């Protein structure tokens, strides 16, 4: 069956390229570039978290940034209070996961439909943004960590080797960690999705009623999927706090949530590699076009091309209208079309039809 | 006693502003089941339209009540023809496309107007209530809200246009079979909804000023008001605004404005959990 | 007397002021095949929805092997052994036929045994050659069989079929009747149908629904001759 062998080839390819990338880049690239690439890797993990929840699980979550931000803030606050990074990292994964589980329970066991899921998750991330944004005074603190409000939390101490406070991670180490984590996440999710669990959540996405009538409880499966996604996003947040040593409430913002959704749409729902490509591609594009915030500069370039919301907005509209399946599935369709055409032509000319192995 | 009167005015103001910012969205959602995530930007554009018009010498009242709705209404028509109409029936895709539109409009206005807040001072000065002074403008906003809601009620109930609108809302195919042109009805509806949002944005501009990202402040609140209200456009908007506005204002009064916002959002989540069809899914079902 | 497989006691549901199902007392024995007929809107599909947990009754009970399932969740009832093929085919359109059946089979079996059972089921519903086709692209009759395969894949003891012959060609109708008779050798079935030919091919006992209640229950030959039944289908004016 050519489908399955193609799959295996793809997996091996990703593994080889990934490992090569991981070990060669620090040797070949400038430190600046390594720093940039590190955050792309971290964001790709975030993209994968939504790819799981939405692309495979069919759960419309407009507030994935909530778990991302919770992970980042939890790490920061725990790190200031504890001083050694093992527990903060664990907390940075558990807390967003717990929050996702609670929110998920509330939404899925309340049988809330698609559209309203989107609105509720959007609202939740807004609540978080509003709350954290207003915690600027010194009276807002958890232990020794000031929440900082719209100023954010600067100077977050970086990770150290488990239980070894003096072995602090450096830039290169951060890159290895992020890339390794991304590869682990990718292959881990591949395994999960190939399992019975993965098949069931895809079934639930395709036809929840029928899945229920076969004896599967969709609420429970969605809850687990949502929680795993929350945990992954939280972990990405923890890495992000480490990368920039800084976190601010914009991490909960609508713009951040919108970006994650755009990565998945552009890359392609129903695939894992798609959102990774979409994420890295768009991040790279935004950086190349020059700014993260439209400048007040008078020249056309900075007003249009460096204008991230403008460009992202056009990309999102264009993809929804013109390439709704996303880049990777559409590319796969094109390849299949040409392969099919070649096969049909050969049959017409009287050759043996290609036997799919 | 004066404090009670003051509080009452604040509550009415909260309800009025919620109703104003939501009613345009309610019409679009109620009629076409379109979730327009660029709604906040329509409000923002209304504010800018009013400010630009005023700065060109047009009277502030004309700018707010005529120019702004006209400009945003036309923008709405253009958006409907170029984006929305390809996505009917695809609710999620509409949400995504309008989210893209929202980003685009934010970027565009930032490019044109820059990042800073522009404002116009609230006309009408202040009034005295016993020991307290409050802005007379709040009374104006309340009045505008009542007039707008009343006008919508009148049009829906007593005019042919309103009847066509209600008919298409109930059953588009049937309406088409009777000679109504649903695409045109949708285009007009979207335009009217946008115009009302523009009006709301303009009227509220003197209160909070306008800047490109102000839409974000409006979008969540108007959405949860519309969804909390349920299918009936008017009674839904009014009842949800009344409920949320009151909760918001009381929470603000007791604690801080920020917590007031949080209370509003939290109340909305609880309401949607308890009444997934919104208030008018259970009560006031026959309402307009 | 042995506990019947399925029993409903005064089962009712109302929406607004309308009693869609009104005090229905229905009994089905193990491995019994019953046909359920009645005009449109008589409440047959609504009745099915209550049996499978998709709708909660306003009043009354549903007992499956003596166990009260009136308020159980749909997936719990499915696990107890009730399967339903709905009026509009409800399948996993984006997946292949094989993947569809596999989802059902794999709830109870895994690995090699599951794969074998999937192959057997594909053979039984006659779709082995189309196994890797995406269901959404199949013809209507084939999609009905995929759904039948899905329902059978979890090995339920009671199978509800809501208009299984709808939209089928003559040969497909015969094939479906054959399949139903084959299933009936080991399972109980309730079949809702309008196609009288199909009913004659499979039925022995028929229950007639009208306006949410049971009008009459009898052997199929008597039902077809019963003037009351004719009335509700043709309207009382025709009898006059």
Descriptive notes:
The complex is a heterotrimer of chains A (357), B (288) and C (240). Chain A has a two-stranded antiparallel ribbon with strand order 1-2. The C terminus of chain A is likely disordered. Helix content of chain A is 72%, strand content 1%. Chain B is an all-alpha fold. A two-stranded antiparallel sheet of chain B has the order 1-2. The radius of gyration of chain B is 19 Å and the shape is globular. By secondary structure, chain C is of the alpha/beta class. In chain C, 38% of the residues lie in helices and 25% in strands. The mean pLDDT of chain C is 89.
Number of domains of chain B: 1
The whole-number mean of residue pLDDT values of chain A reads: 86
Distance between the termini of chain A: 5 Å
What is the number of beta strands of chain A? 2
What is the CA-CA span between the terminal residues of chain B? 36 Å
Q: What is the spatial order of strands in the main beta sheet of chain A?
A: 1-2
Give the largest interface.
A-B, 47 and 40 residues
The gyration radius over C-alpha positions of chain A equals 22 Å
Q: Count the helices of chain A. How many?
A: 14
Task: Please identify the structural class of chain B as seen in this structure.
Answer: mainly alpha
Counted by DSSP, the helix tally of chain B is: 12
Rg of chain B (C-alpha, Å)? 19 Å
Element string of chain A (H = helix, E = strand): HHHHHEEHHHHHHHHH
Based on CA inertia axes, which overall geometry of chain B fits?
globular
Portion in beta strands of chain B: under 5%
Strand content of chain A: under 5%
How would a textbook summarize the main sheet of chain B? 2 strands, antiparallel
Oligomeric nature of the chains: heterotrimer
Describe the main β-sheet of chain A briefly.
2 strands, antiparallel
């Amino acid at each position: 069956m050519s489908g399955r062998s193609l799959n295996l080839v793809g997996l091996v390819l990703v593994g080889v390229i990934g490992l090569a990338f991981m070990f060669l880049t620090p040797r070949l690239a400038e430190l600046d570039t390594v720093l940039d690439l590190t955050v792309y890797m971290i964001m790709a993990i975030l993209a994968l978290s939504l790819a799981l929840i939405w692309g495979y699980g069919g759960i419309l979550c407009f507030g994935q940034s909530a778990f991302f931000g919770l992970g980042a803030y939890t790490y920061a606050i725990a790190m200031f209070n504890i001083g050694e990074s093992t527990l903060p990292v664990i907390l940075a994964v558990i807390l967003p996961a717990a929050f996702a589980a609670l929110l998920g329970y509330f939404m899925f066991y309340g049988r809330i439909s698609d559209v309203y899921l989107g609105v509720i998750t959007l609202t939740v991330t807004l609540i978080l943004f509003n709350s954290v944004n207003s915690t600027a005074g010194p009276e807002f603190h958890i232990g020794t960590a000031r929440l900082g409000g719209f100023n954010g939390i600067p100077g977050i101490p970086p990770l150290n080797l488990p239980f070894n406070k003096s072995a602090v991670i450096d830039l290169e180490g951060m890159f290895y960690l992020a890339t390794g984590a991304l590869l682990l996440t990718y292959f881990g999710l591949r395994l999960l999705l190939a399992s019975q669990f993965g098949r069931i959540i895809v079934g639930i996405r395709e036809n929840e009623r029928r899945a229920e009538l076969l004896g599967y409880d969709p609420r429970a499966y969605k809850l687990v999927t949502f929680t795993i996604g929350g945990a992954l996003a939280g972990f990405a947040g923890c890495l992000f706090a480490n990368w920039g040593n800084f976190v601010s409430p914009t991490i909960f913002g609508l713009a951040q949530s919108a970006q994650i959704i755009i990565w998945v749409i552009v890359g392609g729902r129903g695939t894992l590699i798609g959102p990774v490509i979409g994420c890295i591609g768009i991040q790279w594009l935004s950086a190349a076009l020059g700014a993260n915030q439209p400048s007040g500069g008078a020249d056309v370039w900075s007003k249009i091309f460096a204008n991230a919301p403008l460009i992202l907005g056009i990309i999102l509209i264009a993809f929804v209208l013109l390439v709704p399946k996303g880049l990777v599935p559409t590319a796969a369709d094109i390849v299949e079309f040409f392969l099919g055409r070649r096969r049909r032509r050969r049959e017409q000319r009287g050759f043996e039809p290609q036997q799919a192995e | 006693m004066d404090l009670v009167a003051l509080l009452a005015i604040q509550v009415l103001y909260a309800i009025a502003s919620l109703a104003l910012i939501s009613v345009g969205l309610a019409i679009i959602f109620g009629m076409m089941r379109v979730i327009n995530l660029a709604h906040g930007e329509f409000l923002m554009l209304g504010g800018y339209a009013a400010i630009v018009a005023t700065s060109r010498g047009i009277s502030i009242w004309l700018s707010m009540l005529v120019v702004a709705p006209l400009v945003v209404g036309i923008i709405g028509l253009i958006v409907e023809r170029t984006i929305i109409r390809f996505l009917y029936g695809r609710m999620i895709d509409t949400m995504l496309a309008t989210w893209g539109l929202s980003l685009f409009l934010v970027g565009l206005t930032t490019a044109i107007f820059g990042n800073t807040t522009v404002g116009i001072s609230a006309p009408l000065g202040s009034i005295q209530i016993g020991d307290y002074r409050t802005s007379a403008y709040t009374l104006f906003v309340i009045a505008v809200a009542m007039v707008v809601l009343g006008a919508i009620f009148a049009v829906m109930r007593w005019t042919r246009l309103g009847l066509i609108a209600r008919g298409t809302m109930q059953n588009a195919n049937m309406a088409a079979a009777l000679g109504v042109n649903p695409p045109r009805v949708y285009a007009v509806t979207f335009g009217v909804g946008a115009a009302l949002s523009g009006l709301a944005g303009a009227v509220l501009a003197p209160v909070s000023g306008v800047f490109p990202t102000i839409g974000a402040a409006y979008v969540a609140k108007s959405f949860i008001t519309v969804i909390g209200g349920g299918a009936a456009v008017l009674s839904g908007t009014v009842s949800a605004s009344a409920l949320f506005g009151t909760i918001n204002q009381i929470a603000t009064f007791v604690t801080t404005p920020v917590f007031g916002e949080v209370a509003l959002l939290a109340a909305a989540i609880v309401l949607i959990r308890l009444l997934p069809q919104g208030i008018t899914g259970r009560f006031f079902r026959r309402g307009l | 007397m042995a506990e019947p497989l399925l029993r409903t006691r005064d089962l009712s549901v109302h929406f607004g002021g309308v009693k869609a199902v009104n005090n229905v007392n229905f009994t089905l024995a193990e491995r019994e095949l019953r046909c359920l007929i009645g005009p449109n809107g008589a409440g047959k599909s609504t009745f099915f929805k209550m049996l499978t947990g998709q709708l909660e009754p306003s009043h009354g009970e549903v007992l499956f092997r003596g166990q009260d399932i009136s308020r159980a969740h749909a997936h719990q009832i499915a696990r107890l052994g009730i399967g339903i093929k709905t009026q509009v085919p409800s399948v996993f359109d984006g997946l292949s036929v094989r993947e569809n059946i596999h989802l059902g089979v794999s709830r109870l079996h895994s690995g090699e045994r599951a794969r074998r059972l999937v192959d057997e089921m594909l053979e039984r519903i006659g779709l082995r050659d189309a196994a890797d086709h995406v269901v959404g692209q199949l013809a209507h009759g084939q999609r009905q069989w995929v759904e039948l395969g899905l329902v059978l894949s979890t090995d339920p003891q009671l199978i509800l079929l809501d208009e299984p012959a709808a939209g089928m060609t003559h040969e497909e109708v015969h094939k479906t009747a054959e399949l139903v008779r084959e299933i009936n050798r080991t399972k109980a079935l309730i079949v809702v149908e309008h196609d009288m030919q199909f009913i004659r091919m499979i039925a022995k006992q028929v229950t007639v629904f009208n306006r949410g209640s049971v009008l009459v229950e009898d052997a199929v030959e008597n039902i077809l001759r019963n003037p009351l039944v004719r009335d509700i289908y043709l309207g009382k004016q025709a009898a006059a």
